[in-house]
Amino acid sequence: MSNRLRQCPEWVIDAVLVHELAHLQEVGHTPRFYEIADRFEQQEESAVFLEGYALGLGLRIERGDVDVTRLTNRVSA
User: C-alpha dihedral over 48, 42, 15, 72, to 10 degrees?
Assistant: First the structure.
């Protein structure tokens, strides 16, 4: 995990840990993966936080860093 996460709220770090642990059950970002990862209630909120945090740090976000379909669904809801 990145040392930049030390500056993040605890709930965001928890979401990252759950995300990584979900990969122990499902390697890719498949629907089954999201079923597991989304058991953490603040998973989607943490993704939004981390996107803003990365942009604030001036980090370039690559296409593979963000699941665009999930963001689109969240914005249109």
Answer: -40
Q: Which long-range contacts (CB under 8 A, 24 or more apart) does 45-53 make?
A: 45/15, 46/11, 46/12, 46/14, 46/15, 46/16, 47/15, 47/71, 48/74, 49/8, 49/9, 49/12, 50/8, 50/12, 50/16, 53/7, 53/8
CB-CB contact of 56 with 41 (8 Å): no
pLDDT at 58 over 70: yes
What are φ and ψ of residue 76, in 5° steps?
Answer: -80, -15
**C-alpha dist (Å) from residue 62 to 14, 38, 54, 68:** 23, 22, 11, 11
Q: Enter the pTM of the model.
A: 0.75
